[in-house]
Every structure is written in C-alpha cells, then in structure tokens.
Design brief:
2 helices; Immunoglobulin-like; single chain; 9 domains; 77 strands; about 55% strand
Amino acid sequence: MDGQRIAAVLFAVLMVTSMVAVPGAVTAQDDERDSAEPASYYGTVEIDGETAGSDATVSAVVDGEVVDTLSVNETGWYGGPDTFVENLVVDAADAENDTTVEFRVNGEPVTRTDPSSVEYSPGDVQRVDLRAGGLDPIYEFAVEDADESVTRGDDAELTVSVENTGSAGADELTVTAAGEDDPRASRTLNLDTNETTTEVLSVPTREDDGDQITLTVATDEESAERTVDLRDPSNFSVALDIDAPEGEGEQYDPTEDGLNGTVTVDNAGETADEQNVSVSFGDETLVNRAVELDGGTNTEIEFNRTLAAADAGETTVTATTDDDIATRTVSVLRPGTLEIDVIEDESTLSPVAGQNVSVVAEITNVGEADVTDRAVNLTNVTADASDEVASEEFTLAPSESQDFDPSVETIDDDAGSDRTYEIASGDDAETVDVTVENRDAFLDVTIDDLNESSVEEPTTGETEPVQVNATVENLGTQDASGDVSFTANGEEFANRTFDDSDGTQRYNVTYPVELGDAPEVTIGAAAERDGTGELDTTDETPLTVTPQAQFTVSIDEAANKTDLSNESGEFAPTVSVENVGDQPASGNVTVFFNGTAQDTIEFDPNSLPTVVQPNDGFSINTSGLNSGQSYLLEAEVANDATGETDADTDRVSIGEPANFTVSDVSAPSSADQGEEISIDATVENTGGVDAEKPVTVAVGGTTLQTTDLNLSADESSELTVDYTPTSADAGETPEVTVATPDDEATDSVDVREDAEFAADLTVDETAIAGDTVTAGVTVTNDGGDAGNTTDVRLLADGEEIDSTSVELAAGEQTTERFEVPAETAGDLEVQGVTDDDVAEATVDVGEPGELDLSVRSVTDPVTADENVTVTVAAENIGDGDLEDRRVRLSVDGSLANTTTADIAGGDTETVELSSELGRSVPDDETVTADVAVVTPEDRVDREVTVRSEPDDAY
C-alpha cells in the first residue's frame, strides 16, 4: 500500500511536471482522465463532535476491504489539498468507476461523511470530511414553497421540509429578517435520526419593512434566504360630492331640490379587498353595500333622496368605508312656517258673563321664506263643537311677528260655563281654556266727554270751568253702591255716590281750570264699590290748557355808557321784552340805576318787543358820579295777567373805556417734545374804568386756556400758563399768542422732535448647543434730536444677556454686538430691544455631534500571527460636525491603534482599525481576546477567538 501512496505522489509530481512542460498535454488529461489514475481523499476528522487527535487513523474501504490507511495530523486533518501532502488513496486496481468508497476512523465506520456519499472516480482528488462516534442532531432543510408577495402587515408563509441526518435530538428552525437579531418565527423540532417533517411557518411583516423583506431560514446546520415582496394594504378612501341647489345660495329648498350626489371609493393600496360602503343623511341610511376593488382602482356610487319640510336645518351627510370617512353639512331651507304663541297675560280668559273673551296670540314666521295670505283661525273646540269664530290672513317675512287678537262675546246665560278655543294655522296650533265667571257686582266707569277739549289758561285769581260727563254701570247681577271720584292730575276735585243697584248712572261735574294748569290736565274718574277697599275701574282723558303770557326782559344796549362825563352825562338804554307764552298780555318795565328806580313804562301786547329805546323821552343822568367806576343798571318786567316778574342787569362805567393790553409774552426759544414749558405774559388795563375781560393763550392756533380777568384802571396782572409740546408740534415752530378783545402779542418756540430708535437684529440662523452665537443689533434714530439716548438690550428666551447705552443724532445709525450662549438644543428666541422698538429672531440650536458605533465586521477567528481588523459604522447622531474625532482600538484593555474621523452631523462613516494581537497560543489550542472600539461617547466590544499559528507542513 505504501508503494501505491508513493506511486500516487510520484504520479502527482509527474502530472505537475508534464503540465509545466507540455501545456497541450494538460488539456488532454483534463478532458479524459487515465482510467489507471488513483483517487485520493483528504479532509477533517471529528470524533464525538471534537477535533480528532494525531493518534487517530482514517481508512478507505471498498467492498468491505480496507484499501488504504492514513494518520490524522495535529490539526485534525487527514491528508490535505497541497501537492506534496499524503492523501488517502484508492487505486484503480481496488475499485471500479462509481464504486462506493466507505471510510473508517480508528477501524470503526464513520457516522457521517460530507459529502454524504463518495463514489470512486479515477484521478479524483476530493475533500471528504468525516464524523465518527456520537453525532449531534443535524437538521438539513429545503424551502419547498414561499409567498412571493404579501400585503404589508400580513404574514408571509414558508413551507420547509426538514430532515435530521444526525443523532436524535432537538433543534430550532428560525426565520429572521435581514438586519434583525431576533427571529420573527421559530419552531422547535425534535426528530429521530433520518426522520423528516414539513413545517409551515407564518412570518409576520411590519408596516416599516419597506417594499421587500429578506428572510433567512436557519437551523444550527445551515441557512437559506428568501425575498418576499411587500404590497401596500388596501386603503379604501372615500370622497363625497353633492349636487348644488338649483337656486341661488347654498341652501336646499325642499319644494324644488332633491339631495343627489356621488360617492367615489378609491382603493389607494396595492391589495384587492372588499369593504362596506355606507352613505347616511343624519341617522337615515341612504346606501349600504359591499364594494370589491383591486389595488389602485376606484368606483362611484350614486345616491338620491327627496327633501321635505321636516328636513329643515343643517344635517350631516356621511360616507364611510372601513378606512375612511367623508362628511358634508347640508342646509335645508325651512319653508315659511307660522308659529303660534298665546300671550295669556294680555288675553281675557276668565271674563264675567256679558264680557268679551279676548285671545291675544303672537304669530311668528319661524321659517326662512315668506308666508303670504296664510289663514289663522280661532275655533271653539269645546266638546264636539267645531265652530270657527274668527279668522285672519297673515303675510309675514322670515322672523316677522304680528298679533292675532280676536274676541268672542258672552251673554248672561254663559255664566259658569267652560270653553276651549283653538288658534291654528296649517303649521301650528295652540289651545286655551276659558271660564265664563258669574257676574258679581262691578262698577264700570267711563268718561264720556268734556264740554271743552281745550281752554286758555286763566289770569291770576280767575278760573275757567270745564264740564266732565261720565257714566258708571254695574256690570254684575248683584246690587251695589259706591263712590265715584273725579281727579285732575291725580288730585280729587269732585266725589259722587253710586246708588243705582243694577243700572247705569250718569254724572256731570265741573273742573275749574286755574293759572298754572298749562299745558295739560289729565281728568280722571274712578269707581269703587262700598266695602271693597279697592277700585273696580278707572278712566281718564286729557284736557289741553293754552299757557298764559310769559315775559322775559333783556338790556340790549346802554348807549355811550363808557365815555360818560361825571358832570353832565346822560344815556338811554335799550330794553326789550319778549312774550314766550301762548296768550297776549300787557305789563310794565321799571328801569333801576345805581339802586334807584328811574321810570316805569307801561306796554300793551302791540308794543312788543322793544319797550325802552333812546330818543323816546327817557334818559338816565350820570351827573355827580365818580369817574372810573361802574354802576348797576337793571330792568324788571311785570306781567299784568300772571303777576310774574323777570329782570336783567348790566354795568355802566363812567370814564375812558377799559383797554386790556398784552406785553412781555415770553416762551423758551426751544423745547423737546413732551417737555413742559411755561408761557408768561403781562396784561394791563390802560383804560379809565374797571372791567372784566377774557384773556386767551394759544399755541399753534390751539387754545390752551381762556381766563376772565378783572382789572381796575391802570392795573396789570402777570399771567403764566404751562404747556407740554405734543407729537403734532414736533419739528415745528408754533406761534405762542396771548390775546384780549383789545390787543394781542406773540412769541414762538422751536419744538424738537423726539428721537425714535428703530432696532434691526442680525444673528446666526443655526448653532450647536454649547456654542456662542454672535448677535448684532443695528439701532437707527429715525426721529429727531430730543431724548436721543437709548438703552440697547439683548434678550435670549426672555432673559437679558447684556445691555449698553448709545446716543444718536437724528438719522445716525450704529450696530452693537453681543455674544449669546446657546446652551441647549431647540429654538433660541433672541430679541434686540431699544426704548422704542423690538427686533426678534430665532436661532435653530442643534445637538452637539455625537458618535454612535456599530460593528460591521471583525476578524473572527484569527490566528495568533494575524492582525485583528474591526470595521465599525460611526454615525454622527448629533447636528454638529465632528472633526478629527479620535477613534481608538483596544485589545485586552490596552490601546492598540488610533485614527481620526471627520463626520458631518447626521452622516455615517466607516472606520477600520487593525492591530497585532501579540498573543502566543499553544498548538492546537484557542484563546479569546477582548477587542473594543472606543470614542469619547460610545464603545463596542467583541470577543475574538484566537487560534494557534498554522503548521508550516502544508
């Protein structure tokens, strides 16, 4: 057998040599192998699930005979793929083509080969892995069927056939979605050796799975992938379209319009479905049907309904599917409708026999259209009666009301009876109950007339008689007596006795109209039965009284009164009398001067209005009076008809007329808007008599004050008025005027306009938490030079950060800069504030840059002489950019490598770090190394298996 192995090796060497020397020969041998070539095998060996040691042997068996045996090396291999490695050989003399080759380990048949069966083929060099001794369960499977597409959110079904080709035992059949660690479906299997089963797994899909999902089916032995397309679920949206009313406006008239519309149902999803579609008008269902639609298709459903007056008002039309709802509010016009409301307080529903029943009902059109000539009837519906006793037609606009007030007579025989009346229209009805009371004694008084409806007011001491005619009737059937009183403006002027037990009695009394009764007297009559203590009835009527004459007197003019000489001066005043009453009368006027009656002048109605005037023979002598003084002139009129008097007075001065001059008007040459200033002036009476005259102070044509100033001859007065210039004065030079009826003087003041500080804010639109934001507040004085200093403040989220003060002339501008800390992420509200204005801006403050690490790959296992390489995805989950961010690799807690990364906010970069392990691992042994990638914010750790360095033998 050693000769065979040597021959196989030599043959392999010759083959290599011949391939190098004769290329054409290689091709020929590849196409057709020599039937005498041996077959060789190599592979791994496991015994009881562990790697076989170097004391194990492997044998090839053909037809029950061992044809070659080979020892297992230190790494658990027999033979190898390299050229000069000894393999297990089956010579052509030992087997024919397709003969099954079996294998033994340590003389015992193996329990499993991979591949599962090996057939001899000349020249074949094949890897065959062997398992001997006890085996773990080995679950192999095939996906027999899988849904190619499902609706997103539904389950995807996979049919999997499974065979346990290992030892009996349990294993987990799992289905995991790409990118996830936990399976979405699993099944625990417990099969005997070579036992098979077919499993159907339902794998849930999710709304966020995208358009496809890749599912990995796996056991401990193997895995397979299937991709499932995901369709959007059905989504039946509904749109509601209702035909507009025929007429103008948006309301439907039930007499003309119907409710007609269309519902459009659209399956916006990708999955066919059937849903119920309903359309309702308020609580009434108009449509209720099942609708089936493929994905992306739609259909229309029409609906119709007749409208009636009962539909008046607003009603919601609703269309629904399982997924959606659409509504429209429909307003139906309410036809003209009469509503009846009986006003019982104004109705007579408990009359005595012989008194009329009166029903007062308010008729209102509560509809939204006019009512024309619609009848409202009053009907006696007592017992079986149905007698219409009154009817009236009404024409009313919407919301308009009108009273219906019919009356029904009663007679003595009706006493003690009950009745029911109905007030009805075609739209509404209301009933009232009426009780006709027995006729107790009751005195009904009526003022029939006055012999004069209008009289003239008499003079003093005179009266004007007016006769009052009245009737008192006992409306009851019982005897009665009582008093009848007559009043004028509530005061009793006559009283009579009623003593006709069941009849009627008439009265004639006289009222004496007196001076003072004008312009009207209310004549009243009241009847009261004896012993009742209360009035049965009252009545009243007006009497017009024409007022007497009424005189007013006025001194119109006292000629030459201020230039009279105290030696021989005379003057004659003009005195007028006016009759403001309604009757003519005579009287007299007495003129008094300096407390002494000068004359009394009689007048008659024809001499009015001027009673005294110059040149009519009447004058007043001023001789002997002191110059420079004024004296009282008085006129008094007396009314002969009423005795009433009226008076008027005036002052008469002796000497040179008063003359109020104005001087020394002064005001500041300039003032600021809003600054109080004082205006000073001197007023002097340069005339020869005392006087009182008005003094007016004005600025820019606007009167500040008018004061009545009383000055003696040659007397002066200092006048001071305070004034605060307003915005209307700003920028102007208003004239200051002090004036009397005799003189005026002026000055002017230059009013400076207030400064007006406008603010404009410039600030960074974005920032990162922890940064400092620079804000510029530009301040412009759009006003004047008054008050031209302002504080400039900067506020952040309502809190003052800093402030400064600036002084700007009119039109000047400056920019003040402030530093604002952006401490936390979010909106930072910044305000630049002056005394007059606020400018605002918002800074979007983002989160600082922060790395989140996730492992993409790691070298595992790794041999002790290799570098371990870790690749991570470094995602900047913040908003701020990261520059030169240090990323470190540590191995077993020691720094092994460092790199830096530049990652913009929201971006992800791949970072790869490698390092030697620096570990010594004994042959055929493994150890673990702790590998970590670390940043200031995050770290990821992995445990890596480290194997011993490979044997250099092959």
